[in-house]
Amino acid sequence: MIKVAIIGCGAIAHKRHAIEYFNNSNAELVGCFDQQVSRAESLVAAFGGKVYPNVEAIFTDPTIDAVSVCSANAFHAALTIQALNAGKHVLCEKPMATTYADCLAMVSAAEKNGRRILIGHNQRLTATHRKAHDILASGELGNVLSFASTFGHQGPENWSVDHSKNTWFFTKSAAAFGSMADLGIHKIDLIRYLTGSEVVSVQSTLATIDKKFENGQPIDVDDNSIHVIRLQNGAIGTVTTSWTYYGDENNSTTIYCEKGIMKLYGDPEYSLEITHKDLTRVHYEIDRISTNTDKQQVSSGVIDLFIDSLIHDQPSLIDAQEIIRSMEVVFACLESGEKHQIVYV
């Protein structure tokens, strides 16, 4: 039995981490900490365990094997490194950290302490994305030529616990990034996973178009972004993110190949559709992907993979050593947006 504590008791802890630990027969949620004690108390009331008075109490508790770091982005690295140095395994929410140096330090701490560190990249784990990966790897559709991947919804203020326009997601000191790293990191990582090819260059535009704090001032970070991405295999495509899709969420990807087109999560009925060059179509009704507006979230698979990785002491699809490559691309996109030029990865 893997004994786990959660640090940070916001929406992601309640809707994903806590309930998925609760439903995993090989895990026991022993407690949590949040600076807002009421949030920690609410989580404990729903899923058990106890409220810890501070993070140090978690790190020094010898009964705890692992922690989920679900804090604001700015604290991911420090909390993760503290936990690793205390001998705990770590599942850290995305984005991994706010600087590339911190990403490297997190991986180094895991290696030094002989602990595992996984990052919450759930999109690699959906049944549809795994099926798409296998089809592309088989060569059935030939080489990937281009792609377009989009992740947009109405904004994190609708997801966060307090539903406030003053959410930490909008504050640069806490979030560091906007929609680009909140949502774009998923799609950048997904393209790497699906194609098996690394990113060689990016050209990015980031903008704050509509989102405002409660006082009417524009938020500190981007609410929309568009990225032109070139892969090592020669393919070129786009990743688009938005917090201003004031309607249905868009979490879709289209892959254009030599022998046809693959569409993922673009149809309400079929999660995967292939149109061959001769216009014959194949539909797969595999699963659905959670949206921010879902009251009942589909299991992400992240917690189950984390626990399984610890039990069997084996690598996983979302090990930090793999995800750090996607973070390199994120930082290149940020640099490109600031300098208004192509940046090579």
Walk me through what this model shows.
By secondary structure, the protein is an alpha/beta fold. The chain is built from eleven helices and 15 strands. Helix 4 packs parallel to helix 5 (100-113), helix 6 packs parallel to helix 9 and helix 9 packs across helix 11.
Give a brief description:
The chain is of the alpha/beta class and 345 residues long. It has helices at 11-22, 37-47, 55-59, 76-85, 100-113, 127-138, 172-175, 179-182, 184-195, 302-312, 320-339; strands at 2-7, 27-33, 50-51, 66-69, 89-92, 117-119, 144-152, 199-207, 224-231, 236-242, 253-257, 260-264, 272-276, 281-284, 343-344.
Record keyword descriptors for this entry.
11 helices; 345 residues; globular; single chain; alpha/beta; 9-stranded mixed β-sheet; 6-stranded parallel β-sheet
Alpha plus pi helix count: 11
**Radius of gyration from the alpha-carbon trace, in angstroms:** 20 Å
Distance between the termini: 41 Å
Helix content: 25-40%
